[in-house]
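re: ur question from earlier - yeah i can do the single chain one, its not a big deal. heres the input i used so u can compare w yours
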Amino acid sequence: MAKIPTEIPSLKLNDGTSIPLIGYGTGTAWYKSSDDGKIDRKLVDAIKVAIKLGYYHLDGAEVYNNESELGTAIRECGVPRERLFVTTKVITNIKDIPNAIDKSLKKLQLEYVDLYLIHAPFFASSDEELQKAWADMEQVKQSGKAKSIGVSNYLQKHLEATLKTAKIPPSINQTEYHPYLQHQGLLPYQNSHQIATAAYAPLTAVTKAKPGPCDSLYASLAKKYVVSEGEIALRWCIDQGIVAITTSGKEERLSDYLRATTFKLTPKEVQEISEAGDQKHFRGFWQAKFDKDSRL
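and the output i got, formated as tokens:
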């Protein structure tokens, strides 16, 4: 197991706050089908291990049904609240965001979250619904219950609709992002509006989407930098200024992922991965919302 003394670097958002470039996610494998009130100690302990290793960026959501476990881990971990960066997301109670944030904060046992996201835009059937939800998010920020506000799974059209009436622009858009899903012009659009990008499922090209055109490139780069292919995948995000959200229940794997903070890919290597990734399309989430070949 790697012993990495390097602190995870941060990215400054458009509202002046800073977000660690690697986060520990509590979705996917940790998702619970319902919030039955019972605390999953396995998840609590896994989060505490992540925090011990230096993952102070913790990414949750109301729909994961495990905010109580995240809150318990935060309370028990011994790290001061101000050193942690806690994200949660709203979608289940999207029609009542003021109540949703209060419910989340109660489960998290926190007075505020560092980042509050609309989990997906697909609840809305009109621009006006997106704009109403965003106005409610702005009220959450103004109340002090969230230091930063943003979105998740938004396409350019959703951002354009939101920005038409926004008083406070989204600070970040968290979306599935890896070499096989680069979303065409979305990132340049976000960059032009100072909206940061966070990637969930950043390891897809080395896990669920194998075999693929990135395989040999990842292998050669892993050998060059003496790291795993997963760490190359994380570094590809970091070197583009993209926040990477990852997870694991294995301490050794989480520790090794932190080696992604100890080296940099060259601009040419970043480009080569991007170009290889363009040769294949793979979407792991929200497939029902897109045409099979859509790269949006």
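The first strand starts at residue 10 and ends at 12. not sure if urs matches, ping me
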